[in-house]
Amino acid sequence: MELTYEPRIVGFLCNWCSYAGADLAGTSRTNYPANIRIIRVPCSGRVDPLFIVKAFQLGADGVLVAGCHPGDCHYSDGNYHTRRRVGLLRPFLDYLGLDKARLRLEWVSASEGKRFSEVVSSFTDTLIKMGPRSS
Amino acid sequence: MARVGVFICHCGTNISGAVDVARVVEAAQKMPMVVIASDNKYTCSEPGQASIRQAIVSNKLNRVVIAACSPRMHEPTFRKAVSAAGLNPYLLEIANIREQCSWVHSHDREKATAKAIELVKMAVAKVIRHEPLYPREVPVTKRALVIGGGITGIQAALDIANAGHEVVLLEQEPSIGGRMAQLDKTFPTLDCSACILTPKMVDVANHPKIRLLTYAEIKEVRGFVGNFKVEITQKARKVDYSKCTGCGTCWQKCPEKTPSEFDLGLGKRPSIYIPFAQAVPTKPVIDTDSCRYIKYRQWLAAGEQGKKPPECRICEKICPTGSIAWDQEPQTITEEFGAIVVATGFQVYDHRHYEEYGGGAYPDVISGMQLERLMNASGPTGGEIVRPSDGTHPKTVAFVCCVGSRDQAKGRTYCSKVCCMYTAKHAIMLKEHDPDVQCYIFYIDVRTGGKDYEEFYLRTLDDAGAIYIKGRPSKIYRDGKKMIVLGEDALMGRPIELAADLVVLATGMEPRTGADKLAQKLNISYNTYHFLVEAHPKLRPVETQTDGIFVAGACVGPRDIPESVAQGSAAAAKVAGLFSSDTLVTDPITSVVNRERCTGCLLCVAICPYKAIDCETTRDTRVVAVVNESLCKGCGLCVGACRPKAIDLRGFTSQQILEEVNSLWS
Amino acid sequence: MNRIIVDNNLRSWLKELAEKYTLVAPVTSDGVTLFKHVKGSQVDSLDLQYSNTAVSPKGCFFPLSETMFSIGSDGVNVIAPVSTDREVVIFGIHPCDAAGIALIDRVFLAEPTDTHYKEKRDRTILIGLACNAPSPECFCPSVGGGPANPMYLDILLTQTSAGYIVQATTGKGKELTPAARMEEKDIPLPPPPHVTPVPLEGVSEMMRRNFDSPYWDRVADRCLHCNICSYVCPCCYCFDIRDYMGKDKIDRVRSWESCQSAGFTMIAGGHDPRPTKGARLRQRWYHKLLYFPELFGDIKCTGCGRCVRSCPVNIDIREIITDVQKLNV
Amino acid sequence: MISAQNTIRPRPHTTYRSFVEAHIRQSIAQCYQCGKCTAGCPVAYTMELTPRRVIRALQLGLENELENSSTMWICLSCLTCSARCPREINIAGVMEALRLATIGKKPTPDQKKFRLFHDLFIMSFQFSGRAYELGLGMAYNVMSGQFLNMASIIPGMLRRGKLAFLPHKSRGSETQHIFQRLEGQNKAMNQAEAGTK
Amino acid sequence: MIETIRNKAKEWLEKNDGGCVIGYERASDGMTARPVFIYKPYMVGSLIFDETCVHNLSKYLLNRRGLKTAIVVKPCDSRGINLLINEHQLDRESIYVIGVVCPGMKDAHFGRIEDRPLSKCRVCLHHTPAVYDVLVGEPQPETASRDYSDVARIEGISIHERNAFWKEQFERCIRCYGCRQVCAGCYCQECFVDELDPLWVGIRSGPEDNWIWNIGRAFHLSARCIGCGECERVCPVGIPLMLANRKLEKESADLFDFEPGMDAGTAPPFATFLKEETLEKVE
Amino acid sequence: MIETARYAYYPGCCSKASAKEYTATTRLVCKALGIELEESPDWICCGASSAHSIDRILGIALPAHELLYAGRMKLDLVASCALCFSRLKIAAAELKDDDVRKRVGEVLGQEIPGNPDYRVMHILQVLEKHLDRIHLEKPLKGLSVACYYGCLLGRPKEVAFDDAENPQVMDRVVAALGGEPVEWGFKAECCGGSHVFTRPDIVSKLSHRLLYQAKQAGADCLAVVCPVCHSNLDAMQKSIGKEYKEEVDLPAFYITQLVGLAAGLPPRKLMFEKLFVDPMRLLRAKGLA
Questions:
Q1: Does residue F156 have a cis bond before it (omega within 30 degrees)?
Q2: Which of B585, E88, F171, F235 has the lowest tally of Cβ within 10 angstroms?
C-alpha cells in the first residue's frame, strides 16, 4: 500500500488576528488540509523562537507563525518583534540544514479567513513537494 | 494529581457531521490524567452546562477540557459554568474542534476525527499545567486630570465635575481658553467667540469640584488605570496667587513691552501680564524673559558683565497686596488620579516654512489667526483691519488655502478641515468691515462638510462677492507696496498674477509642540505628525490603548469647535463610566517574573509596550525585573524575548505551550 | 621470543573481528580523534599512531547518556533496555585509558554492582596499543602506570619495526589471539618512551591539611567551571539521573554530570553544600588526590594528560600537585 | 482649444504615462491638480498646455495633445515646479521624459527650433569634445532663419574677446567614441526590446 | 607594550586598594598564556602580552560585579564589556579597561603554537578596542571589508549537505557546556538547557537534544556574539561553533545593521524594531 | 602656513569664451587662498541642458566622464558653472543605480566601480569652506549686493546644498567680504537660461524681472555664479533695458571677482573690463577702485 506523506504543521497563531482569521475560515466553511495543529497564543510576540526549534526537534515538518499585519498588532508592537525574531531564525535554520521554507511567518487578519486557508493549503503543498525531512 | 474531565460537543451536527465524536470520546478516555470523557449534543445549552457541573462534582474533577467551538466564542460561558461548580474558572481549556476542525475538514471524516483527537490531546496536555488564576481588584481614585484648558478640556472638566467627581484642569499657559479665546467670531453662525467661551471659563473657575492649575506642565506619569500618580511642574509665576487679587495695577504700570503671544506678535504686552482681558485666572505672571528686574538679577548673578539693566521693580512697589514673589521657583506637585483626559489641542502651522511665500519676512503676509486678532475688537488694533506694514486699510485681500495642509513637501499631508471655513468667514467679515474690500481666495478644493457649512460658503460668494481661484499659488513677492501672488487659475488653465494689499495664509492645524513628549510620558501612541492616536478611530474615538487615558479634541486630529466640544463631553462620559464603580477588576493573564532566574538584562523593560515592567534590587543585590500586573496586558512579548526564561505568562506559560507541542509527538 | 603480528595481518584480523564483534577504535575526523564504532571497511584507514583521544573511552561502559529502563505510558509496565548480544572489542586503547576503566571498575563493580555498567563491561574485550607518542603533559608512570603497561588489558600490542608484539594477559585475551596470523620472532619489547614524572610524595597528606587554604579560591579565580576536565577524564564517573518523556514511554536516563557544574550538589530546598566556585574546584582535586585514595588506596588519575590539554584556562593537575606540596599549613 | 470635437475619451494607461512614470520613478496619479507648478513656472505664460495640464493630459491619456505641445521644449528645466510641488512630483522630470519620449516623432513647427538648437548644441561638441559657442550661434541663426538673434551683443562679445573663433578641443576625441558606443548600445537595446515583443 | 600594561596595572592597583587586575601570565607549558588575577602591585611582573593571549577575559568580570577590577582586553574581548554593560550586567565605573591594540593572535594550544593566525583573527575587523580607559599601542584602522567566506562556503552547499554537515558536528557534542561557560554572553542564572520543567532540552546526549542545545545556544547569542571565538577554542571535540555564530552575526548585520558590543548604548536588535523594515519574507 | 587644499576642477565650455573672466578669477582667487585646482586635460562638455533632453544615458555619461577623472584623482570635483555643477551632481546621484552605472560604463568604455561616492562641489561651497583664509584688504563696505544663485543650486533637493527658495551661501560669502547682501525674493528664480537662442523674448522677460527686483531691493550690483545667467544679466542688460524702456545699469559681477576685489587683488587681474555693464563708476563711488 502506498502511503501518502502527510506533513505535520504546528501553527502558532495570535489570538486577535490570525486565530480569529482561522475561526473565520471555519465560519465561512473554507476547506483546507487537516495537517495543521494550532496553538493559540495571545500575540505572535509570545512565540519564543525556541518553541519553533523545539517543534522541529520533535519532528514537525513545518511551523507557521501567524500574527496581525504590521501596524495592526493588538498590543501595538508585538508583531514587529516577531518579524525580527523569525526573520533571523529562518536563515539560521536554513543554514543548519533545515529548509527555511519549513518555517513561515504570515500576517493574517481577523477578516482574512480565506487567506488563512490559502496559507495552510499552500504551506501543506510546499511541504508535500519537499517530502519528509531528512534526518 | 490532576483529574481531567473532557467534554466533547456535537454542536448539533456542526461537529458530529464531520467528526466521529464517539471515537474522540474513546480516545480521550485513554489520555493521561483523564478521569472522565463524555459527549453532549449542545454543550453550551443549559443542560449541557449542567452535565459538566455535575461531572465536576461527582468525579472530583480539578481540570476541564471542553472540545467544542472556538474559545473566542464561548470561553467566558464555560468559565462561568466551571466556576459555578466551584472550580477556578481558569482551570478550563477549550479545544477548538468546530471552527478549526469540523467546519474546515468536512470533506474528510477520517482526518477530521484524527485531528479532533489531537486537538483534545493538546488541550488535555495543556490543562494539566493550568494553575488557578485570580483576577485582582484595584481601587479607583475618583479624581480626574484634564490636560489642556482649551474649549475641549474646559468642556470635559465641567462635565466630569458636574457628574460629581473632582477634577484638576491643567493648562500650560497663564490662562485657560486656548485657541478659541483668540478667535474673533466662529463659523458658520458668526457668534462672538469670547461671548460663548468666557462664561464657560468662569464656570470652571467657580466650580467647587474643579481645581485649576495654570502655567503648569506634566513632569512624569506613573501608575495605571484608577491609580495614576502624576508629577506636575508648576512654573514660577513670580506672583503669589494667595495674595494677588487681580486688581490689574501692575500690568497697567509695567514699563516693559514685549510682543504678545496671544496677539501673535501683532501687539505688545507688559512683562507682568495676563494674556487677554478675560483671562482665567485673572491673575498675572511675570515673563522672566523680558522683565527688567529679572534681567538685572541675572546680570548681577553673571558677575556684572555688560551694560547694567535698569533695576525696575515697579510692579513690586505698586502692588497693594505685596504679591510679587521674585524668589518663587518652579514647584513639583504630585497628585493622584483615576483617569486622565488629554486635550492639548493644536497650534497654527508656522508659515515660516513656506520660503516661497516669503517665509514670514513680509509683514503683509499674515496667517488666518493673525487676521482674527486684527479683526477682534479687543485685539491690537481695536478691531481695525490694517496692513501691519503701514497701517493702511487693505482693499484687495488674497487668501491662500492649504498652507501647511495637504502638502507632502512640507511634511503635512492631511487636510486641516477648518481652514476652508474660516477663510470663508474671513471673507464675509472683511466685507462687513469694509464694503470696498475685494477678496480673492486661492483654493485647491473647498471642503464644507458640516451642518450649515455649505450654505455659509455660498454666502462668501454671494454676499461677500469673494472670487475663488482654483489653484495653489507658487510664490508671493513684494512689488512696491503691493504683494504679488503668482498662481494659476486652474479652471482657465492660465497663470495668474494678483496684486494684493494683504495676503492671508489659511494656515492649518498641527499638534502642540511637545505633544509627542507628553504622549511618551503617558505611554500613548502618536502618529508621524504627533497627533495622538485613539484606540479605534470609529468605535473608540476618545479612548487610547492605555486604559484610563482618554483623548479629545484637536490633539487627536484637526477638529472644529462643535466636534471638540462633543469629544470633551464624550471623554468626560468615559471617565464618569470608569468612576461608576469603586474598584476595577484586572485580567489575571499577566506576566510574572521568576526572581531567581532573572539576570536583570532588562530586555523585557525595553520591549514592553505598556511600560509594565520595572526593575528592583533583590536582597542579594541583584537587579531583577518586576511586572506591574495592573499595567500588564498579557501580550507575552517579554516572555518571547527572555533568554533565561525568567519571565512567564500566566495562562500561556512556556510549560503549557511546550506540553501542547510535546503532546503532538507523544 | 615474542609473538609478532605484522600490520597487514593485524588489519585483516581486525576485519574479521568486525564481523563477529562490535569493533570500537580510535577514528580521526575533522582533526578530532574519538573512539567510534568501526565497520570492517574502515579498518584500513585506522590510524594506529594516534596520541590520546579527545575523550577517554570510558563511555563504552558508562555512556554519555543511557536509558536505564522505561515505563510504559500506562505508568505500570517497566521495560528493560534492549542490549545487543554482540560482544564488543575495543581496539587501540592506550594503557592509561585501560587504567582509567580499572579505576571506575572499583566503584561500579563493587557491591551493589551497577548492572548497567557490569553488563557492558562483561561483554567487552580490550585490545590495547602501547603508547609510543606520549604528550608532554602525560605522567602515567607517576600514578602506577606506564606507556606500555599491559595490566588492565586483555591484549596489548606494542609496535616495533618488524610488526606488533602481541601480549595476551587474560584468558579472554588469549582466546582471542589470532595464532595463525602471528609469528614468533626474537624481537625484544622496546623500552617504553620517556614520560616526565610528577612527584606525588605526601600529596594526600598535604591535601588533608590544606582544605581551607585560600589557594583553592585563587585557582578558582580563573576556573570557568565548565565540565570539560571531568568529561574528558578516563576516571571521572559522576552522573545524573532524570526522567524523560518519550513518545510512548517514560525513560529513566542516566547522563554524565560533573562536580564542576553549579547545580551539582543542589539539594531539595535549595541548599547547596558547595555553593562557591572554589568549593567545587577543590572537590575535584580532593576526590582525585585524597578521598579516592582513602577509599581505594590509589590516586584517581591515570596521568593521561587530557585535562591539562583540554582545560581552556590551563588548570594543570601537575601544577596543583606540586603547588599543594609546597603549601604552608 | 476646447471645443465639442475635443471631447475627452480617457485612456488612463498609455505608453507615454508608463514611460514618464518609469523615468521619474513616481506615479503621476499622485498629482491632485493644485496648479502650483504652473503658478511658479516662469514660462507658463507662453505655454498652451501649462505644466499642470500636461500632467492632467497624462492622467487622462491625451497623447495627441502632448505630442503637439511645445511645453516640454519651452520648459527651462529650472526645477521650480519640482521643488515646490506639494505632492513632491518631479514635474521637470516629466518634461524631460516627454522630450525623450517624443524625440523620435516628427517635430511640430513650433517644436522645430528647440530641437534644432539642442541638435546643434550637441553637434558643437560631439567632435571637438567642448561646446563651441560662436559656431553654435551662427549655425543656429542660419538654420533657424533668425539671422539677427543676439546680434546686438555680438560686437560687444567680440570686443571683449568673449567669443572664440575656433572651437576649443579636448585632448583625445573621447566624445566621438561616447556617441558611437551610445548608438551601439541604444541599437542593441532596441533590438532586444523588439525581440521580447 | 608589556611594560606599559604592567605599569598601568601597577598604578591602578596602587590607587585601588582591594582591586584586582585580570590579565595574562605564562601558562604551565612555558610558552602559551593563561588568565591571571593580580591583587597586589608587586605581582604585576607576571603579566605578559603576546600572540598567545587568546583568552577573552571579559567573562571574568561577571564574577566581580560591583568590585573594582582592571582588565586587559583585546578589541574583540572589549566588545564583551560593552555587551555586558548594555545588558546591565556591569557597571562601567567599577571597571578599568586596559585596551590593547591587537596584532592578531596565533593559533595557540596548550603545549603548541601553530604558525598561523587564530581562525577568528583571520576575519577580524576591529583592531582597536571598542572601549578602554587606557589604550596600549597605536590605534589601528579597521578592516573595511567583511569576510564571510567561511559562512558562504556552508551557504553554498546543498541543504542536504548542510544538514549532514551539522548533524555530524553536533553529534560529537559531549554536552560539557565548555562553550557556554567560557562565553561572556552566557550568564543566565540557570541555562535553558538545565531547566527541568519545562524541559527544553533532554539530558540525553543524542542527535536531537544536541541539535536543540546547539541551536538554542547559538540563537541566544544572535546579535550578541562578539566574535571572540572562545566557544570554538575550548570545545574539546572540535565543533566549529563560530561557523554557526558567524552566520547569525552576518544576518544580524545585514538585517538590522547591528554589530554587538561596538558601544554600550545602542539598543540591541531584539529590543527594538523599525516599522518600515521588511525582513526577507516567506516565499 | 596654510595647508593647501586640492580639488579637481571642471571649468566648463564657457570658460574658453564667454566666461573667460569667471574661470580666470576663479583660478586667481583659489591660488590666493591656497586652493589648488587640478584640471583634467581631456575634460569634455557636460552636455548642458541639451544632452539630457535628447538621451538619458548621454546626459549622465558626459558628466560621468569627469566624475571618473576626479574619482581616479581621489579629489572632490569643483565646478564654477552652476549648470555644469548641476549636471555633474545629478549624474553622480544617478550613478548609484546599478543599471545606469552599467550602461554608462559601457558608453564610456570603462567599468565604473560599485558604491561610487563622487563628491561634487560648487565653487561657492569651496569659497565658503575656506573663507577664513581670505585676508580682507579691501572690505566691500557699503556695497549692496543682490546675490543671484540661479535656479539650479538649490534644486532638486537631492543634490542641493542650500535652500531652494532662499539660499544663503553666497550671502554669507558676500557678508564675509564686508559687503551688504540685500534681501530679495528672486535669488533662485530662473533667468531664461539657454533660451537666449530659441526664445530670446523669454530671456528678456525673466532677466528683466530679476534686474528690476534686484534694483527695487536696493542693490548696487549683482553677484552671479553661472556664465549663462551672467550673459543674460550682463551682456543682454542693455538690450533688455531698451525693450522695457528703462535704463537698469546694474553691474553683474562674478562672485569670484568680488572675492578677489575684497582680497585686494589688482583690479586689472580681475578683468572688470570684460563686463558689459561697466562697474568702475560704482566701485569708485564706493571707494573700492
A1: yes
A2: B585
Look at phi and psi of residue E24 and say left if phi exceeds 0, alpha if psi is from -120 to 50, else beta.
beta
Chain D residue with the nearest C-alpha to that of B487? D39
Architecture of domain B590-649: 2-Layer Sandwich (3.30)
DSSP helix/strand/coil, B443: strand
Range of the domain at A59: 26-130
Residue F241 falls inside a structural domain: yes
pLDDT computed for residue E261 by the predictor: 94
Residues F173 and F252 in one domain: yes
Which residues in chain E touch residue A87, judged by CB atoms under 8 angstroms apart?
255, 279-280
Q: How far is B34 from chain A (nearest CA, A)?
A: 21
Tell me: do E165 and E128 sit in the same domain: no
Specify burial of residue B191 (Cβ count, 10 A radius: 0-12, 13-18, 19+): middle
* E171, E117: one domain: no
Quote the radius of gyration of chain C (alpha carbons, Å): 21
* Cβ neighbours of A60 in B, within 8 Å: 664
Q: Is the pLDDT of residue D192 over 90?
A: no
State the smallest CA–CA distance between residue A14 and chain E in angstroms: 18
Omega prior to B255 cis, within 30 of 0: no
Is E277 within the bounds of a domain? no
Q: Could you tell me the three cell numbers for D154? A: 555680438
The answer to whether the CB atoms of D88 and B474 lie below 8 A apart is: no
Whether residues A55 and B106 touch (CB distance < 8 A) is answered with: no
Question: Which tens digits make up the pLDDT trace of C16-70?
Answer: 999 999 999 999 988 899 999 999 889 988 888 888 899 999 999 999 999 899 9
CB interface of B with E, residues 385-404, below 8 Å: none
- Integer angstrom CA distances of residue A98 from B212, B446, C318, E253: 65, 60, 46, 22
On the question of pLDDT at F1 being above 60, the answer is no
B599 near A CB under 8 A: no
Range of the domain at F95: 5-124
Using a CB-CB cut-off of 8 Å, the residues of chain B touching E198 are 653-655, 658-659
Nearest Cβ partner of E220 from B598, B643, B655? B643
Instruction: Say if residue F260 is in the same domain as residue F169.
Output: yes
**Given F72, F94, F124, which residue is the final one in a domain?**
F124
CB count, 10 Å around CB of A125?
Answer: 12
F156 touches chain B (CB under 8 A): no
CA distance B63 to B186: 65
Residues β-bridged to residue C168: C155
Least Cα separation, residue C60 to chain E (angstroms): 14
Query: ipTM score here?
Result: 0.70
Q: How many structural domains are present in chain A?
A: 1
D37: chain B residues, CB-CB within 8 Å: 474
Q: Which of E37, E109, E175 sits opposite C221 (nearest CB)?
A: E37
Q: Which of residues 48-87 of C touch B (CB under 8 A)?
A: 73
C57 Cβ contact partners less than 8 Å away, ≥ 6 residues apart = C24, C35, C90, C93, C97, C101, C234
- Cα gap F12→B118, rounded to integer Å: 79
Tens of pLDDT, residues B298-323? 998 888 777 888 899 999 999 999 99
Nearest by CB to residue D178, choosing from F49, F107, F165, is F107
Are D117 and D98 in the same domain? Answer: no
Q: Report how far apart the first and last C-alpha atoms of chain D are (Å, whole number).
A: 37
Give how many domains chain F has, as a whole number.
2
Instruction: Say which range, B109-123, B272-286, C136-150, has the weakest mean pLDDT.
Output: C136-150
Contacts of E213 in chain A (CB under 8 A): none
Residue A4 in any domain: the answer is no
Q: Is the pTM of this model over 0.80?
A: no
CATH number of the domain at F167, please.
3.40.50.11810
Using the predicted structure, report yes or no on whether residue E283 has a pLDDT greater than 60: no
